[in-house]
Amino acid sequence: MARKEPAADAANPGRLKQIALTYKMTRRADKKIGLVLAAVGIITFGVFLAIGFLIGHPIYLGILGLLLAFLATAIVFGRRAERAAFGQMEGQPGAAAAVLDNVGRGWTTTPAVAMNRSQDVVHRAVGKAGIVLVAEGNPNRVKSLLAAEKKKMARIVVDVPVHDLIVGTGEGQVELKKLRTTMLKLPRVLSGPQVTATNDRLRAMGDLMSNMPLPKGPMPKGMRMPRGGKMR
Predict the structure, then answer these.
(1) Contact at 8 Å (CB) between 35 and 80?
(2) pLDDT of residue 44
(3) Cα separation of 24 and 143, whole Å?
């Protein structure tokens, strides 16, 4: 037990530092975040304290209200921080790949399985819903990339459903902030072994970017394919 206490003490400053950093990043895009969090906390606590006085138990309801105020503040902060993060990522090359990496367990993501010289990109995710091709870039140009990739999937994994999504704010497109939710709503049609078999077949096939290390998260705007790399 004595050994665990120093580790826990060391983790707390790191966690608080991370929260502070997240707050600063959120505040850049959401100037009212401080006022909103304060209002949520004060109102939640005030309501429970008032109820406590009305029923004759201000201490018990006050403690409960304090705990729920912290919980409500944390929930609101998390949602607004997520919204601010998506707002900053919107429109950046590779933003969809960053979201796909956090879809959840059971999904295997391969970024940039297809790319053209204009930096329009198609990413691939494999899960119990089948294969999901996610494109980001110019809507007109990415359609040809998606069509070529779907045709390739049909030759390799004929028995696996293939879905295609285009990230954007236009008609028929999926907003970046709704990408994860949209994927999780897809019907699950494959079993665990089928997902593994599909990943094995695709891995054996190889990808456009298999020999090129990619940084996690959005790709730099100035990034270009190497001269020796193939373009589609």
Answers:
(1) no
(2) 93
(3) 38
Identify the bridge partners of residue 130 per DSSP, sorted by sequence position. 127
Give the burial class of 187: count Cβ atoms within 10 A of its Cβ; 0-12 exposed, 13-18 middle, 19 or more buried. exposed
Concatenating the DSSP letter of every residue in 41-74 gives: HHHHHHHHHHHHHHHT-HHHHHHHHHHHHHHHHH
Q: Which pTM does this prediction carry?
A: 0.60
Is the pLDDT at 124 greater than 50? The verdict is: yes
In this structure, are strands 108-115 and 121-127 parallel, antiparallel, or unpaired?
Answer: antiparallel
Question: Residue 29 pairs with which residues in a beta bridge?
Answer: none
Structure tokens at 4: 């665990």
User: Which of 184, 86, 93 is CA-nearest to residue 142?
Assistant: 93
CB–CB of 207/110 below 8 Å?
yes
Neighbours of 135 (CB within 10 A): 24
